[in-house]
Amino acid sequence: CRRMNCFLTFLWSLSLTMTPCCCSFVFIPQLQNIRPSWFSSISQLEMSLIDTISGFLQNREGDFVKLDKSDESAYGPGPALILYKVPAGILTEEVQDMVADGAPKASQRGVKVARIYGDTDSLLHLSVEEALTKVTTCSSTKDADLKDDGIPQMDIIKSCPVMLFSGISNTEMMDTYNIIGKEVYDESGGTLSAACAKAVPNAMQKPLRQVFEEISGDHMDAISNGSYSS
User: Fold this and answer.
1) Alpha carbon 75 to chain centroid distance?
2) Residue 222 and residue 55: Cα distance in Å, rounded?
């Protein structure tokens, strides 16, 4: 149902799936401190979903690190945001507006946005550090918008969108992800739940393609284990 999918999007904004060196997450119990207004009416099925995803994270405990929202440090080249297979119907200008709302401090320094729609984009052949550096050294946001208009929209629909943040604080990253994640969900008619990740030191030399594939795989595995399609 729609509310279940919205709940998943909210949950994953707190529990970010990613590779061993690339991800941070806030432990599930912290949901009670920032729950939405409808949280108190969560059904038994939805609580079971929390347990399922929580169990997934526990089974992969060595692959994740805790995200501290009180940590305002901003690691990595940037501020920058790479959108991987985010629906083309969400225009880059709209993304910039959403970034400005979610990350006002980073926006004052100018957030560069790059978009990857297909599997042949040149950025995917670079390491995480090389890709982020290339994005942040573009002379303008327009130059950083490295989208491929030739990618069929159907390929996007079948994918798992990922947002990779760099040079943005944890708080602003989470706020921005919540805004864009909801837009992805709405734009796809409730069929897509975006994953979210941040640049960390141990991941910088990994191939960007590998990172996105691993994030997408973990994200889809965790959600499919919830069996919420009904």
Assistant:
1) 16
2) 9
3-19 average pLDDT score: 37
Closest CA to 191 of 87, 95, 53: 87
Judge whether 63 and 17 are in contact, CB under 8 Å: no
Instruction: Report the alpha-carbon distance of residue 96 to residue 94 in Å, rounded.
Output: 5
Residue boundaries of the structural domains of the chain:
2-68, 80-212
Q: Beta partners for 115?
A: 83
User: Taken in order 123, 106, 18, 8, is the CA torsion positive or negative?
Assistant: negative
Alpha-carbon distance of 140 to 64, in angstroms, equals 34
> 200-227: per-residue pLDDT in tens?
888 899 999 998 888 887 777 766 665 4
pLDDT tens digit string along 108-124? 999 999 999 887 788 99
Q: Is the pLDDT of residue 18 over 80?
A: no
Tell me the CATH number of domain 80-212, given options 1.10.10, 3.40.1550, 3.40.50, 3.30.429. 3.30.429
Mean pLDDT is lowest, of 19-23, 44-48, 61-65, for 19-23
